[in-house]
Design goal:
Layout lengths: L3 E3 L6 E5 L8 E5 L7 E2 L8 E6 L5 E6 L8 E6 L5 E5 L5 E6 L5 E9 L2 E8 L5 E3 L9 E6 L5 E6 L7 E6 L10
Antiparallel strand pairs: 1-2, 2-3, 3-4, 5-6, 6-7, 7-8, 9-10, 10-11, 11-12, 13-14, 14-15
Length: 180
């Protein structure tokens, strides 16, 4: 077992499991009493990552290399319908860090190169991306969590500094992020 995440209503545990300890992780749901276990992913040669739940517990954020072995793309999994939807294609490693409470946007982490990554604001309807962390490399950005009203993204950043600091980017009414 790799990662375990409680649903917000505490009715489900989502977890990853790599049979035999390999790299081929799959995502499962199970009730806290041990009943109702089901695998959400295909169980083939693909590997899956579990990022967490939406705030209402209806959606899981999942990463997978199912499209191509050279990338981890960002997916959403609708628990009620069983739909696994590709939202963002990555050139390498990436994945969602949070979903807004209104279900309209996500924060996406994308590794650009060793010691350099970015966070993006993603429109979940059409998959369009807006860069949250413009900078001259190197630079590391982690976290990427929405405020309850979705107007701010909180993160960790070492932009223009030696050590990480707590940071934020305010999202304007037009959906564009302000400076870090």
């Amino acid at each position: 077992v790799g990662f375990v995440r409680w649903s917000p209503d505490c009715k489900w545990l989502a977890f990853t499991l790599a049979h035999g300890g390999g790299m081929n992780e799959q995502v499962y749901l199970i009730r806290p009493d041990g009943t109702g276990q089901r695998r959400l992913t295909e169980g083939g040669k693909e590997t899956y990552r579990l990022a967490g739940w939406s705030h209402d517990g209806r959606v899981l954020m999942v990463g997978s290399n199912r499209r191509t072995p050279s990338a981890i793309d960002a997916y959403t999994y609708d628990v009620a319908s069983g739909e696994l939807r590709l939202v963002v294609k990555n050139r390498g490693v990436g994945g969602f860090t949070d979903l807004s409470r209104d279900g309209k946007r996500a924060v996406l982490f994308r590794l650009e190169s060793r010691g350099d990554n970015n966070l993006f604001l993603v429109d979940l309807k059409d998959g369009s991306e807006t860069l949250l962390t413009p900078h001259q490399p190197p630079g590391s950005f982690a976290g990427g969590v929405f405020s309850p009203d979705g107007s701010t993204v909180y993160l960790s950043s070492n932009k223009d500094r030696d050590l990480n600091a707590f940071a934020k980017a305010t999202i304007g009414k037009d959906g564009r992020p302000g400076p870090i």
